[in-house]
Predict the 3D structure of the following.
Amino acid sequence: MIKNRIKEYRAKFGLKQEELAAAVGVRRETIVNLEKGRYNPSLVLAWNIAAVFGASIEDVFTVCSDEGEKA
């Protein structure tokens, strides 16, 4: 499972879901589903999202085991 801090970063940068979606070339629904943990991003999408925030992929996305522990 992959957990993310997209919503936290969006708030920090004052971005709406629509604005982040446009910046990385996806639909707003994709950002919604990512934030809710319903969808795991491709490596390219994760890279692009992290780049918008000036962060590393590891800062935005965390791989966890089934029990919720970091893998």
